[in-house]
Amino acid sequence: MWLGRCHGKGLRTAFRLDALHRQMKLLGEDSPVSKLQVKLEPGVNPSHLMNLFTYEKGYCFVYYLSQLCGDPQRFDDFLRAYVEKYKFTSVVAQDLLDSFLSFFPELKEQSVDCRAGLEFERWLNATGPPLAEPDLSQGSSLTRPVEALFQLWTAEPLDQAAASASAIDISKWRTFQTALFLDRLLDGSPLPQEVVMSLSKCYSSLLDSMNAEIRIRWLQIVVRNDYYPDLHRVRRFLESQMSRMYTIPLYEDLCTGALKSFALEVFYQTQGRLHPNLRRTIQQILSQGLGPSAEPSVEQASAGADSEVDADTPALLLGDEAPSSAISLRDVNVSA
């Protein structure tokens, strides 16, 4: 998989790099977690260090190394030798760099590690986007239909645009195309309520049958647009998902908007099934701005969902004081 992706230039890479730039826009180019080699400094949450920058900025660096080599087969040989040498051991970034320059002595003689603006040290320790990215033009044939459909849904008049959009069968799309389309809608949220209503009518049932990466994107659109008729889908998803990457983004969105009481209610019902670390993180999200005697409003939260809080449900246990400057990674779900 590594070898194939290092030379791939298709939709998958385009999608993930698009997500990286969206995350960069959210966090800012000077965010410490955007470094490839992050130091545990004040304000840096260790749980945020395995993120898009780790994988996608790291991918761009490895791709850059492959371009320096210029010979895909020889670079594959290097990767195999590196893995063989260090398998079952712990390594640091310098091990990779030393191995690379040792395997390609001609590149070491050319001082490729010190090229202005592309220094290896800068790759590892500078904040911001990758210093170089692969040419992704070959993936444009797959991204053009996504952009066209997004433009239809944001065009006016809505009735005419929705009719044209609904004629496009996204069930035949690749997973990454659907995810990219939903990401575009997420970026545009909040959307006009009539647009969300038409989107739900057109796609909600179909998306509900797809994998979790697709479903969470649609549910984030539901939450960010306060679309109550589909809240029961959010509830069902949170009741069935115990993974951090699928629960945290939704709880963060719920607590950012007008649906915090709904989030509290769902958490009451599911907290006993959550891993202690995940439960504590959600408690911190819920506790931000919550008064000591605040109680969720079941009446509002139940709009679009018929279940009620059981009297025997354990009380919400708020964790320690929530961090005052937590870094949100809720816009990024890229494992589709």
Automatic annotation (TrEMBL):
Q: Where is this region: Disordered?
A: 290-315
Q: Which domain of life is it from?
A: Eukaryota
Choose any GO biological process term that the UniProt entry carries and state it: proteolysis
Q: Name one GO molecular function term.
A: metalloaminopeptidase activity
What Pfam family does this protein match (any one)?
Answer: Leuk-A4-hydro_C
Q: Which residues form the signal peptide?
A: none
Q: Where is the Peptidase M1 leukotriene A4 hydrolase/aminopeptidase C-terminal domain?
A: 141-286
Query: Which keywords does the record carry?
Result: Hydrolase, Metal-binding, Metalloprotease, Protease, Zinc
Q: Which cofactor does it need?
A: Zn(2+)
Which family does the similarity line name?
Answer: Belongs to the peptidase M1 family.
Name this protein carries in UniProt:
Peptidase M1 leukotriene A4 hydrolase/aminopeptidase C-terminal domain-containing protein
Q: Which organism is it from?
A: Gulo gulo (Wolverine)
| Organism lineage | Eukaryota, Metazoa, Chordata, Craniata, Vertebrata
